[in-house]
Records
---
Amino acid sequence: MSAFPRPHRVAVVAAPPVTTFDLSIPGLVFGAALVGERPAYEVTICTADPGVVATSGGMDLLLAHGLEATGAADTVMVTGTGDRVSTDPRVLDALRAAAARGARVASICTGAFVLAQAGLLDGRRATTFWYMSEEFRRRFPGIALVPDVLFVEDRGVLTSAGLSAGIDLCLHMVGRDHGAAVANATARLVVAAPVRPGGQAQFIETPLPPERGARLSATRAWALARLDEPTTLADLARHAGTSVRTLTRRFRSETGLSPLQWLLHRRLDRAREILETTTLPMEQVAARSGLGTADSLRTHFRRSTSLTPTAYRAVHRAGRGGGLLPSGSKGVVGGGG
């Protein structure tokens, strides 16, 4: 028997015609996640009828695995599909069976329509590709659609918005399973934006919107490299070579947030990572994350995650058998992703 725990098994269900981009996301993100030097996940793509599977982009895919792969999976995901009305009953049965035995169930993009057909979103909150939101709301009035977020989690069922929001969802699940340090390292490996703040609340209702521009990317990188230092709007504007007013307008256009809101989210990312990977006292966690004092850390952390920093650390320490770095360790990953 191996001395190490087996990888978390993820079954990705292709319900044709599939969207190839969405279908590739779980393998890319989960495949890049490492715990130490070991793969954290094992990903299998499956479908009701193994063989050639049609895509919404006009090409064909060859998939070797059938739906039996869902029976041994810890997480079962269904990705975007061009058929939002009449999903194969065998796919719906496999999803219901996975949920019934306690597997985590998730969808990317219009895969939410498949989960809805299976009845797995009834009475829950969910999201989907914004372009299909009105159709989803008309067809499934019993589901509380949250149209303006990247992803939603409700009692073990997760749904994401369209396209690249699936990357955010997968990174969120990596963070849930293995902590902020592993999730941020995975984000860097797949050259994605830093992991969006998720917190410990039951629903993930207000993750960061996707970045929509790169004019201020150098300024954001500069700010990330010195999160532990006081940074004002004037400092950011000076680095960007623009006025505070122009900086604020461009920042909101590119990130969906004001500069100071964005800084706060990034500092909370850093605080979570330090809490998960060290035993540093709260004053030092606050100082290293740029949140000032332990009281300030506690206030912002509770507002973001519904937990105190101490409780958050205890949860993650219990989940890892107490494997934190000692207080004097230099092993904290800097930059917040």
---
Amino acid sequence: MSDARFELYYWPGIPGRGEFVRLVLEEAGADWVDVGLRAGGGKAVADMLGQGPVPAYAPPVLKVGELVFSQAANICSYLGERFGLVPSDEASRLQARQFQLTVADVVAEAHDTHHPIAVMKYYEDQKDAAKQRAEDFRTQRIPKFLGYFERVLKANPRGGGKYLLGSDFTYPELALFQLVDGLRYAFPNAMRRIAPEVPGVMALHQRIRERPRIAAYKQSPRAQPFNEQGIFRHYPELDDPNATK
């Protein structure tokens, strides 16, 4: 599979969970195609679901030669290890997956702030419950999750406060970068309040933004902006009403 081209299947028009995979592919300099952005891409993504002996439940789906598999954290771990974006020892690989999966937990909770009752119901049909869920997420869950990563940065004996794992960049830092980006979009007031409490996380976010391949990607038309159709949505009524704007 060394010469295989990577095909990412994810819905066009939203960053979503596919963005976590895109960032790893871009940072790795992989030869890849975003199938959803091609003509007829939405149908191609839908057609990919359910195919093969082990069908995917939902995108993102990655196709590498004859290999087809899904789940964003699973794909990112595979790519990170394949492209050497994590040390090769077992402990490092497991710990990197731990960080990636922790980010996935936060992403799921962020989604549930605007769909706390039912995924298939409109946001407008569950606004009261969303306000309650969002308040808990802003005041309790975001500080707890980002505070965890802040402690990890400080506790890493070889990272100098800059790296999650070891003495250099690893792929889960891309996931943390995207998480912070999404939270700043969805909850700008709350994040202005929380950011000073997690200076290491915010500094890491800026360093990732400045990595040459990530910076080039974010300035390209391939990078899809946040909007109110994806995981991270900005509804002012769900943001922190007491934060200084």
---
Amino acid sequence: MTDARRLPDDFLWGTSTAAHQIEGNNTNSDWWFFEHQENPYVKEPSGDACDSYHRWPEDMDLLAELGFTDYRFSIEWARIEPAPGEFSNAAIAHYRRMVEGALARGLRPMVTLHHFTTPRWFLERGGWAAAGSDELFARYLTAAEPVYATDVAHVCTINEPNMVASMATAYESVISGRPLPTTGLPAPDRATTDALIRAHHRATETVKSLAPHVKAGWSVANLVCRALPGAEDVAAAYRRPRVDVFLEAARGDDWLGVQSYTRTLIGPDGPLPVPEDAERTLTGWEYYPDALGYALRHSAATAPGVPLIVTENGLATADDARRIDYTAGALEALADAMDDGIDVRGYYHWSALDNYEWGRYAPTFGLIAVDRETFVRTPKPSAAWLGEAGRTRVLPTTA
């Protein structure tokens, strides 16, 4: 970076959320259905979540007051198209009001078009792997055009498609009773992987045809596979279907989203459990802030020439001081990557709010605490610490 740890003036500085995780009562979605099935992976349903479907103005007020300049949020396909080919003008208008509300508060909106959830009818017809899924996705994006066609500079087509493909494998395991691996990520379903790549390219074409000014990309969960000596080939083989094919699909895009939280250690026989002496987060992951630097470098090498945006990075912890320490370390790794010429255009922290973390509320990633009964929002010290960089344009440190 040209000035030590100073952000470029046009650097995106924000937080991320996902509709299903904060809105509440997303009853027409596949995840709502999944939450209410008997399975060992869901500890509790999402319910009211953070009630952000109604309280989004308060959320945005807080983010703007804290100093953030950008906000990444998703729109919910299950609300916009509750039945095949039937579109809700009210839902479209709701999300358009969110775009306008962000701008009115000085927050540049990044709109995610798909963040893990689909309408239940889409699941019942076979999900992403069913024929014509890319056409249905494009139809939804065409209907949702009023949300993003003006005043939105960045659109994320699909959040973590590699995780979506792995969840397809997990879903089939739940239905069939087959066990999932005890370490590492399930192998992504191949048909779902191929369909998601088609859907991303179709979505990019659709968005560009309706709003040529919008910069389109997708975000990939970079697993940061760290090989033990002699296990480099094993790590590469493990990583390829889970990460690299999705990074390669982003070649030629306007930008690529990098999402990073921890690392996966790979030995001669595959992924290893978290070391016994390692600090763990509330998700059970290893505390490893340096992962972001590795993720940025690997993404840049696999999709050369594509600008990068960190669309998620954060820590599930009840100790906000550790959140600050972790984020400071991750930002140090980000700055080092930028100093080495990696083209990073922005950073969005996960998450703005303590929210529903896909099966439970216990892992708290939020910069802002949310009372589960009253929905009162309480910013944590990390929120002010991180938000201040939006005003000063200088990366924060713990010093």
